[in-house]
């Protein structure tokens, strides 16, 4: 059985690792030219029952613990006027239920666990037919099973469903402060060691401490049109002017939040938020399946990466258990995945609704402290 995985994200690499552990070869085809060609994003909270379970099945849990940040579980929740609603500081001996890990470190861990020949860089997938993958450079490769792990804009998805990601009404601008402990110790103290959330009426600010000392700042605008990032007057080509415009958009908030935006460097990245329909399914089709964002793109509220990791683990285990019957393995995986990720998608949508609500701060406090 020739297994081809399109996409060297977390889910695709975890699948390749579980197959490798079970003596099954697979090849990951990735459009990026090298492992360091693109920044991999910020921190992930890797959940005990999903993402960590997947890493355990892959034989990587001990290595994961070396890159996990217990302090990343810290949380501060505020209202726009500066009122502190919730502060959770993680004790040094707290269990690693949801530690943070840098996405790049986690990807490197997975890449380092695979033989060099397992990932083919610079292979942009274009189409598949009659047991052959076709790439943008004119090359091709055979497959018996094609796994689309190629993210939100998956090309493989079209082989199974007409579903496409739709805009959620949320648009985000990402900024960041490098080496915050040295450059802005006052802001470092304010943000803390983990996640810092300020939730208001249709807007939110989140700051996330990264393992390299950078704080990533995300400014969210809810109830906005799909073209809002192009029409809102933020000059993305001029970072200083963009920061000034963003400060103006948060001008009715406490001045400490304007100071956080003003301290950011020249990284100003627009990010429209899209999702696939919650509970998306397709008829099980011999020779092709999906995992991760290609299968169940969710809002970025902590579920997506964990689901992708567990998808990779469970698909790998199913293929190992049904070595001579890949269609049965895929059908078994898809049945479980559809149910599990539908539940995760409903939870993510509920959190998304809270974040977009008029009293988001108080509702999120109730979410964290029910009753």
UniProtKB/TrEMBL annotation:
<dbReference type="InterPro" id="IPR002938">
    <property type="entry name" value="FAD-bd"/>
</dbReference>
<keyword id="KW-0521">NADP</keyword>
<keyword id="KW-0547">Nucleotide-binding</keyword>
<keyword id="KW-0963">Cytoplasm</keyword>
<comment type="function">
    <text>An FAD-requiring monooxygenase active on some tetracycline antibiotic derivatives, which leads to their inactivation. Hydroxylates carbon 11a of tetracycline and some analogs.</text>
</comment>
<dbReference type="InterPro" id="IPR036188">
    <property type="entry name" value="FAD/NAD-bd_sf"/>
</dbReference>
<keyword id="KW-0503">Monooxygenase</keyword>
<keyword id="KW-0274">FAD</keyword>
<feature type="binding site">
    <location>
        <position position="293"/>
    </location>
    <ligand>
        <name>FAD</name>
    </ligand>
</feature>
<dbReference type="InterPro" id="IPR043683">
    <property type="entry name" value="TetX_monooxygenase"/>
</dbReference>
<feature type="binding site">
    <location>
        <position position="103"/>
    </location>
    <ligand>
        <name>FAD</name>
    </ligand>
</feature>
<protein>
    <recommendedName>
        <fullName>Flavin-dependent monooxygenase</fullName>
        <ecNumber>1.14.13.-</ecNumber>
    </recommendedName>
</protein>
<dbReference type="Pfam" id="PF01494">
    <property type="entry name" value="FAD_binding_3"/>
</dbReference>
<keyword id="KW-0285">Flavoprotein</keyword>
<comment type="subunit">
    <text>Monomer.</text>
</comment>
<feature type="domain" description="FAD-binding">
    <location>
        <begin position="2"/>
        <end position="69"/>
    </location>
</feature>
<feature type="binding site">
    <location>
        <position position="45"/>
    </location>
    <ligand>
        <name>FAD</name>
    </ligand>
</feature>
<comment type="similarity">
    <text>Belongs to the aromatic-ring hydroxylase family. TetX subfamily.</text>
</comment>
<keyword id="KW-0560">Oxidoreductase</keyword>
<feature type="domain" description="FAD-binding">
    <location>
        <begin position="288"/>
        <end position="336"/>
    </location>
</feature>
<feature type="binding site">
    <location>
        <position position="38"/>
    </location>
    <ligand>
        <name>NADPH</name>
    </ligand>
</feature>
């Amino acid at each position: 059985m020739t297994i081809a995985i399109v996409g060297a994200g977390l889910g695709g690499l975890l699948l390749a690792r579980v197959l490798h552990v079970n003596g099954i070869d697979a090849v990951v085809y990735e459009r990026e030219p090298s492992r360091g060609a693109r920044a991999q994003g910020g921190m992930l909270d890797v959940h005990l029952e999903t993402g960590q379970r997947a890493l355990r099945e892959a034989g990587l849990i001990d290595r994961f613990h070396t890159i996990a940040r217990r302090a990343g579980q810290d949380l501060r929740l505020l209202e726009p006027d500066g009122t502190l609603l919730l502060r959770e500081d993680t004790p040094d001996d707290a269990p690693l239920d949801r530690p943070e890990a840098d996405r790049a470190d986690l990807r490197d861990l997975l890449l380092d666990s695979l033989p060099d020949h397992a990932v083919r860089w610079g292979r942009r997938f274009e189409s598949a037919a009659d047991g052959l993958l076709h790439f943008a450079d004119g090359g091709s490769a055979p497959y018996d099973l094609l796994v689309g792990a190629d993210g939100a804009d998956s090309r493989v998805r079209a082989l199974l469903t007409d579903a496409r990601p739709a805009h959620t009404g949320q648009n985000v601008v990402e900024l960041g402060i490098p080496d915050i402990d040295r450059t802005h110790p006052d802001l470092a103290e304010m943000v803390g060691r983990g996640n810092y959330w300020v939730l208001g009426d249709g807007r939110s600010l989140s700051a996330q401490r990264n393992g390299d000392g950078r704080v990533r700042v995300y400014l969210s605008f809810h109830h906005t049109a799909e073209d809002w990032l192009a029409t809102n007057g933020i000059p993305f080509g001029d970072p200083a002017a963009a920061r000034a415009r963003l400060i103006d958009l948060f001008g009715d908030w406490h001045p400490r939040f304007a100071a956080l935006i003003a301290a950011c460097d020249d990284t100003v990245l627009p990010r429209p938020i899209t999702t696939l329909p919650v509970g998306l399914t397709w008829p099980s089709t011999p020779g092709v399946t999906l995992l991760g964002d290609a299968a169940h793109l969710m809002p970025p509220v902590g579920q997506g990466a964990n689901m992708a990791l567990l998808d990779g683990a469970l698909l790998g285990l199913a293929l190992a258990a049904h070595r001579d019957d890949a269609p049965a393995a895929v059908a078994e995986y898809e049945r479980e995945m559809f149910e599990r990720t539908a539940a995760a998608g409903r939870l993510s949508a509920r959190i998304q609704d809270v974040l977009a609500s008029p009293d988001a701060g108080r509702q999120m406090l109730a979410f964290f402290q029910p009753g």
